[in-house]
Amino acid sequence: MSFLKKLKDKFQSNQSKEEVSDKYKEGLSKTRKSFSEKINDLVAKYRKVDEDFFEDLEEVLIAADVGVSTVMDLIDDLKMEVKRRNISDSHEVKNVISEKLVEIYYGDDNEESVGLNLQDDALTVILFVGVNGVGKTTTIGKLAHQLKSEGKQVLLTAGDTFRAGAIEQLSEWGKRVDVEVIKHSEGSDPAAVIYDGIQAAKSRNADVLLCDTAGRLQNKVNLMNELSKVKRVIEREVPNAPHEVLLVLDATTGQNALSQAKTFSEATDVSGIVLTKLDGTAKGGIVLAIRNELGTPVKLVGLGEKVTDLQTFDPQAFVYGLFADMVDDEE
Ligand SMILES: Nc1nc2c(ncn2[C@@H]2O[C@H](COP(=O)(O)OP(=O)(O)O)[C@@H](O)[C@H]2O)c(=O)[nH]1
Ligand SMILES: [Mg+2]
């Protein structure tokens, strides 16, 4: 059975898997449309797989923001695989591409999706960082809702004391998903409010504390100082915390997201990426570029604005979301 058929069977094997793959398909519809159109054009143009085919394919992948060096690796792998399997019909290459995309994401790692590092019987502290407008506050709201529906007690802390309205925005989310928000006034010290958040989380015996922060990239020195101070407070107050430092990146900003990731990694130890607004771009290939060029796992993806549109990143569901339209016209 072909790789894509296997993925399809997997996602249709039970209701919850099918729901996940439907979310990905919906969220990735812009990328998928543009991608499948181009791949189908390619296959129509070249019946046989040759150098020119690979050159055009390279362009299609780069246009989807897969990232130049990732594309080079992928094309090399594809050429080898095509040779090994003795494939000459360009139709058959779709399966090899989808298979290699999944492989490139996992690299040498275990094939299970990574997920968040949540503590079983102790407080988990998650710090969100990233520039303004990428979706930090929204992601915190969505994640709070998700964790709460799993039965966890969640607390939010409004560490973005810099941007006007940021505290209010998090408070709105708190009301919406019925979770308490610890806040100070605008302009106050972010480390102080996060300290209070931790004390509140301890005294309420909360399971998870989600910390919002400001994203001032204009002044890198300030940002670094602020983030290290916040982190020091968390480290001092909770053993082994923060359990995650999640860098939030906006998929619609393309390669710029990669340079933000580099800057933030210099300021703090980023443990995972949240890639938002995948629904708003036709260039969802950025997921692969991030993974391959930064080595940091994508832990969550934003596939829309609804509270249920935040998903744990699943590379197979992602790749299936890209190729779903092409599964049935095989064989
Ligand atoms: N379409 C879409 N919009 C999103 C997603 N995540 C966040 N947004 C929107 O992005 C905008 C900025 O989000 P916000 O949380 O305020 O960003 P912050 O400045 O990093 O806290 C808001 O209008 C959100 O609704 C997503 O996954 N998909
Ligand atoms: Mg915010």
UniProtKB/TrEMBL annotation:
GO CC terms of this entry: cytoplasm; plasma membrane
GO biological process, any: SRP-dependent cotranslational protein targeting to membrane
Catalytic activity: GTP + H2O = GDP + phosphate + H(+)
SMART domains: AAA (SM00382), SRP54 (SM00962), SRP54_N (SM00963)
Family annotation (Gene3D superfamilies): P-loop containing nucleotide triphosphate hydrolases, Signal recognition particle SRP54, nucleotide-binding domain
Record's keyword terms, sorted: Cell membrane, Cytoplasm, GTP-binding, Hydrolase, Membrane, Nucleotide-binding, Receptor
Region Disordered, annotated ranges: 1-26
Compositional bias ranges of the Basic and acidic residues kind: 16-26
Family the entry assigns: Belongs to the GTP-binding SRP family. FtsY subfamily.
Localization terms from the record: Cell membrane; Cytoplasm
Name of the protein in question: Signal recognition particle receptor FtsY
Subunit (UniProt): Part of the signal recognition particle protein translocation system, which is composed of SRP and FtsY.
Gene Ontology molecular function: any one: GTP binding
